[in-house]
Every structure is written in C-alpha cells, then in structure tokens.
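Figure 6 in text form: structure in, sequence out.
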C-alpha cells in the first residue's frame, strides 16, 4: 500500500491547537505530521486540502441506528447503516444494543458482534449493551436485577467484543455486576437512574466511572423534605473527579445550560458528545416508518417524535435524530471554548472514555481515521485506517 500525504490543511489537534500543516499516512496510521508543502515522494499520493480543517474522525459511544436502519435489527442492517456514517464524519462507533431476554437473544448478540468485526467502512471496537440491569425502562430497556452469570453469558456470546454495558446504580445486586464487568475489561456506564447519593457513589467506587446520555432519564430522587431538593446521581457524578459524562447535544434532549454546567464542574476533558441516534437520524424533514409499529416525524431542528394520533405518546420524543457532525456544530454555536477543545468532545474524550488509545487524536502512530471538512461542517473526504470511505460528489 502506498502512502498518502494530506497537505495544505488546518490540523485540529483535539485539546491542543488548530494550525496549518500536513499529515502523511502509511499502513493505516499517521506516519508524520509536518508543516505545509513537503514533497510527496515516490509512491505517495498527495491531496491538497485547500486550507480546510482536518480532524480525527468523530467517535460515537452511544448510537442505535442511522437513517432507515436500526443496528440491532440484523447483521445486514448494521452493515448497511454504518456504511452511511462516512458522510457524517463519523469513523468509529459502538453500536448500541438493548438486550431483550427472550428467544435467541444471546445468538442475536453473537451475530451482531461477528458482523461488527467484519465491517470496514467504520471502525467498530465492539458493542455497547444498554441494559438489562436498569432501574428505569426509558427506551425499551428491560429491568433486570444484577446477575453475574448473565454478564458472563453476554460477554461470552459476543466473543468478548463488548466495550460498554450501561446500568443503574440502584438495581439490586449491581455492585458485583460492576466488578465483574471491570474484570472482563468492559466499561460500566451509569444511565436510566434515580439513584441516591450513596448508591451512585458506591457504583463509582466499584468502577462505573461514566454516565451516558447524562440528564436524560436521570430524575432526582423523591423529596424527603418538602421544598428541599434531593441530591442524587446527577450531583454525585458532577462532584466526583473520576467520573466523565456524555450528552445528546441536539438542544431538545438536554438544554445547553446543562452542558455548560457539566463543563464548569469537569472541564472539557471529561465531557463527551454522543448522538444516541436511531431510525430517522440524518434524514431530511419528513415522516418515516420504524421497526416499532409507529412512524416518527423527523426535523433537522428537532428530535424524532412519535407521529401517530392513535398512539398515547403521540408527539413525544422517540429517540434521537442527531448526527455527530451536527452535534459538533451545535457545541461550536453554544460554547465559548476554543474550537480544539470542542472538537475534543467528539474525538479525544470519547476515545479516552472507551480506552481507544490510538483514536481521536492527530499524533504519529495514531490510527488514520480522518475527516477533511468544508466550512459548513460537511465532510469532503473521510478516511478509516487510511482508506477513503467517503468522498463528496464533485
């Protein structure tokens, strides 16, 4: 394989700087980073970036689907859906699966894990299992008490390809589950919770150090004294310096002020962007069928909403229609942080949270998962491991 020189670009080094430069790619990794204008050399293809931004690819830790595809529906849906991510500037995801303990659920997990390992259009380090150990059902999660054997069965069924399992601190017998996940090298995320301070602190101490779709399905515990706001999981997570958080930054699931509050408490180094996307994400405004028995109404300026007047939840949120590049655009509009820190929230920070040491950064030796952007934050080209997986028409 020949090398690739991407020249005349503004390099976004997440958390560090935005500066003119060039990158040489070889064998799927960043080989050199230099000033603009080096000679490409024999066997090297040169691309003139035209002064555009070059960033690491976006990393989505929590995503259920895109456009017309829900990842957990089948191996074919997973492959078809992730093939659309390059045009969104997303180069790495954890397909998020809600385990429903009936029928062939372990076999289905195994098929998805195998399919994820064979994908080349996006990097998939493994799966994100949302549940089953949750206290509040939210998005169709099935509440189950802590069961270490079930953890072992799920990890085994996925051939060890589980990166994250999301759970609730107040679920009975959850601490042994958290400890077993850590033993397996699986990162426990906190979610769907109304835990009190003591429950949340115990979960963090046991190894659950990240909260996903923070603020969404994180209600405060019931008041025990009228007029006295009860502290719970949200306050405990914000106060603990070991804990990180992620947000659905669409302006509907979470008010921008909540993101600013987390940044004030933790700094950009501990706040990540996710999409939590599902069917409808990335589509033009319209009404679209779903696998759930009702259509959703999607608008770029709103989340997906149930669109069935016979449905008791007509008009309510039906998952996220956010895509990662739109989330970055929102953050750039909401926040006064330097742009390299905002880009880090969609690249470097999620890579650190998931333990992906060669992703989310522009450094020699890092994976060449790269995106060249137009000013309107539409990708011109997207590379995964140095291979172009998307090129804009024209």
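Output sequence:
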């Amino acid at each position: 394989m020949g090398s690739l020189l991407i020249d005349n670009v503004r390099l976004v080094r997440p958390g560090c700087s935005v500066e003119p430069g060039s990158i040489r790619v070889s064998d799927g990794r960043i080989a050199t980073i230099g000033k603009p204008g080096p000679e490409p050399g024999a066997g090297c293809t040169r691309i003139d970036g035209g002064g555009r931004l070059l960033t690491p690819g976006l990393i989505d830790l929590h995503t259920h689907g895109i456009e017309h595809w829900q990842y957990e529906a089948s191996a074919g849906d997973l492959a078809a859906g992730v093939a659309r991510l390059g045009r969104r500037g997303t180069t790495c995801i954890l397909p998020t699966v809600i385990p429903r303990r009936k029928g062939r659920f372990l076999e289905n997990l195994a098929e998805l894990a195998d399919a994820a390992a064979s994908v080349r259009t996006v990097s998939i380090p493994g799966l994100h299992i949302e549940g089953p150990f949750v206290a509040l059902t939210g998005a169709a999660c099935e509440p189950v008490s802590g069961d270490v054997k079930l953890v072992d069965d799920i990890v085994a069924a996925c051939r060890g390809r589980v990166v994250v399992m999301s759970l609730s601190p107040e679920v009975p017998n959850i601490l042994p589950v958290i400890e077993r996940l850590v033993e397996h090298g699986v990162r426990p995320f906190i979610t769907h919770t109304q835990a009190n301070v003591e429950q949340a602190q115990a979960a963090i101490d046991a190894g659950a150090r990240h909260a996903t779709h923070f603020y969404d399905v994180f209600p405060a515990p019931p008041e025990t004294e009228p007029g006295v706001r009860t502290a719970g999981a949200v306050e405990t997570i914000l106060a603990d310096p070991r804990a990180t958080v992620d947000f659905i930054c669409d302006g509907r699931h979470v008010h921008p002020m909540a993101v600013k509050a987390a940044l004030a408490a933790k700094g950009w180094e501990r706040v990540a962007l996710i999409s939590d996307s599902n069917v409808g994400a990335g589509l033009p405004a319209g009404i679209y069928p779903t696998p759930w028995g009702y259509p959703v109404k999607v608008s770029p300026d709103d989340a997906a909403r149930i669109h069935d007047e016979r449905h008791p939840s007509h008009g309510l949120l039906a998952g996220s229609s956010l895509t990662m590049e739109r989330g970055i655009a929102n953050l750039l509009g909401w926040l006064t942080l330097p742009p390299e820190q905002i880009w880090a929230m969609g690249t470097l920070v999620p890579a650190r949270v998931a333990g992906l040491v060669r992703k989310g950064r522009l450094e020699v030796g890092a994976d060449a998962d790269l995106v060249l952007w137009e000013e309107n934050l539409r990708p011109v080209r997207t590379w995964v491991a140095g291979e172009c997986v998307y090129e804009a028409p024209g």
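Caption detail: Residues 58-354 form a domain with the TIM Barrel fold (CATH 3.20.20.140).
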